[in-house]
Amino acid sequence: MSINRREFLKMAGISTILGIGGVSAVQGVRNRVEASQVSQNPEALTAKRWAMVVDMSKFKSEQDYQKCINACHLSHNVPHITDNPKHEVKWIWTETYEHAFPGNEDEYRAERFQHMPFLMLCNHCENPPCVRVCPTQATFKRKSDGIVMMDMHRCIGCRFCMAGCPYGARSFNYKNPRPYIDESKENLEFPTRMKGVVEKCTFCYERLAKGLKPACVEASNGALIFGDLEDPNSAVRKVLSERFTIRRKPELGTGPSVYYII
Amino acid sequence: MLEKAIYGGRRYWVWIFFLLGLISVGFLAYLYQFKNGLGVTGMSRDVSWGLYIGQFTFLVGVAASGVMVVLPYYLHDYKKFGRLTILGEFLAIAAVIMCMLFIFVDLGQPLRVLNVILHPTLNSVMFYDMLVLSGYLFLNVLIGWTVLGAERKEVAPPKWVKPLIILSIAWAPSIHTVTAFLYAGIPGRHFWLTAILAARFLASAFAGGPALLIILALIVRKYTKFDPGKEAIQSLGKIVTYCMYVNVFFLGLELFTAFYSQIPGHMHSFVYLYTGLEGHSKLVPIMWLSSILAVVALVLLIFPKIRKNESLLALASISVFISLWIDKGFGLVVGGFVPNPFERITEYWPTIPEALITLAVWAIGFLVLTVLYKIAVSIKEEVVFDKYGEKQIRTETE
Predict the structure, then answer these.
(1) Closest chain B residue to A24 measured between Cα atoms?
(2) ipTM attached to this prediction
(3) Rg for chain A, CA atoms, rounded
(4) Cβ(A70)–Cβ(A171) under 8 Å?
(5) B114: three-class secondary structure by DSSP
(6) Looking at chain B, which residue has its C-alpha nearest residue A177?
(7) Which residues of B touch A157 (CB under 8 A)?
(8) C-alpha distance from A139 to closest chain B C-alpha (Å)
(9) Residue pLDDT, tens place only, A191-220
(10) Closest CA relative to residue B23, chosen from B301, B363, B331
C-alpha cells in the first residue's frame, strides 16, 4: 500500500484525535469510581464527621504531651529534624495559649493559662481552605467521614495549601526525610515520604480502618476524646454539651473539628 | 523569520553567550536543588513561598502590561504606538515564559507538574492561573508572529488577527487579576486578604511594565537603526506616571485601613516590612529602598519638563522598575507570611543557589526577549514608517 504525505498526515491527525478522545473518556469513567478497598474491614471505626476534644485539665506534665506526640510521630514515621528548625516536619505539637489563640491575649489573664501549652494538630475543617486551593486534589476532604486527607503521591509540592491553612498545620519536606527517621523505630506498615511533598495529621485514617482509635488518643489516657460530631450520643458530643470549649480561629468560617476544654 | 536571529554583530553574540553563561550556572544550581530538595533555598515551614513566587507574581504584571501599548493602538487608533506594539507583545511572551519557569522551579515535585492538567481542579485558583497564562502566551505568540510576518512581506495583516487582538486586550488584565486571587482569597493571611489587591497588582503592573518597555525602547534605539519613536516613549512616560501615582495611592489606602482601624493582624505585616517586628527587621532596608525609589520616580515623573528629558525619564523608569520589583517581587510575598499563623516570626532571605536559579530564569527571559527583539528590529529596520509611526504598505499601483 502506498500512501502520500497528505494521506499520512490525515491519518495521523485522526488517530491523534481518537487517542485523546479515548483517554479522556476512560478518565471520565475512572473519576466517577471512588477509590475503594476490596471490602471494608467490619471492625473499622466509622463516623459522619470525626472530631476531637482536647481536655487541657488532664495534661499535667510535659510528659503527658510528649506521649501523644511520640505516639503519632512514631506511628507515622514523621522525621525528627533538629538541625534546622525551618525544615521541621510536625503533625502534632505544642504551642502556648497566646500563640495558639492569637488575638485572644489578655495581659492580666492568670499566668498558668498565658503560657499553657496546647496540643496543635490539623483541625480537619468542615470547610477546609487547603482543599479549596490545592490544584491537584492531592489534599481532599473524605466524603464519608470528613477527614482532610493527603495524597503524597499526587502532591506536586506547590505549597499553596500551606499558604491556605490558617492553622499552620502543614509541613513540607524541604529535604529527604528518610535519614531523619530512626530506623530501629520505623513503622513498616506506614509509608515514609520523599522530599518535595506536603504532609500533616490525617486523624489516623489507617488505624480507624483497622478499628483502632488515633495513636495520640490512645496514648493520652483519656485527655483526648475522639468521636463522631454528627452522632448526638458520641463521646465528643457528650463533652461538648456539658463543658465550655473553644476552637482556634472559628471566625474564619473554616469549621475546625478540634475543640479545647481549658 | 527565525533566521534573523542568527545574524548579528560581535556585541550581539557577546550578549547571547553572556546570557547562556548565566543560564548554565543557574542550571547547575537547579540540578543541586533538584537533587537535595527546596531545603537549599531560604524558604521554611513558616515562609513557604519566597523569591521564586515573588518573581512569578511580578512578571505576570510585566506580561499583562503589554496591553498598555496594544490597547491605545488598536482601540483608540493611537498611531504613535504602532512601532511599539510588537515590542510590548514580545516582552509579554518573554515575561510569561519566565512566569512558567518560576512556578516550575518552585515545585517540590516538578516531574509531577502535569498533575495540574491530569486532575483539573475547578476550585483552585492555580488551575485558572495556568489556563489564563498559557492562553495569553498563545495569543501573544500568534498575534506577534502574524503581524510581524505580514509586515515583513509588506502586506496588511490577515483579518482574523484583529478579533484575537481585541481578545488579548481583554485577556491581559485577567492574568493579573487571577494572580492576585491566588493571594486575596486566603483566609487568615491578613496582609493579602484585601479586596484591593487585584487593583493594586494592575496599577503596579501598568507602571512597572511600561517603565521596563521605556528602558528597552531606549536600548533598541541606541543599538539599532530602529527608532520606536520619541513621542511614543513620551506617551509611555505618561502612562508610567499615572499608574505609579495610582499604585502609591492604593498602597496608602492599605496603610490607612490597617493603621486607623488599629487591628493588630492588619498592621503586623506592614510594621514588619517597614520598621521591623519584635527585633526582626531583615526586610526593612530593601523596603525603604523601594519607598525612596518610588518617591524619586514620582518627583521626576510629575513634572513634564523633567519627564521630557529622556535621560531623566530613563532614570525615573529604572527607579519605578526597581521599586516595584522589590515591593512586589519580594516584600508582598514574604510580608504575607510574617508573622506566621501563631504570630511567631521566622525570617526569610534567599540563598545563593536560589539567587542563581532566579538569575538564570531572568537570563532565559532576556534570551527569549533578545532573540524576538532581534527578529522584530531586523524586520522593522527594513520597513518604511510615515511621520505618525504607521508602517507604509506597498500598494499595487506603486
Answers:
(1) B118
(2) 0.90
(3) 23
(4) no
(5) coil
(6) B37
(7) 38, 107-110, 112
(8) 11
(9) 999 999 999 999 999 999 999 999 999 999
(10) B363
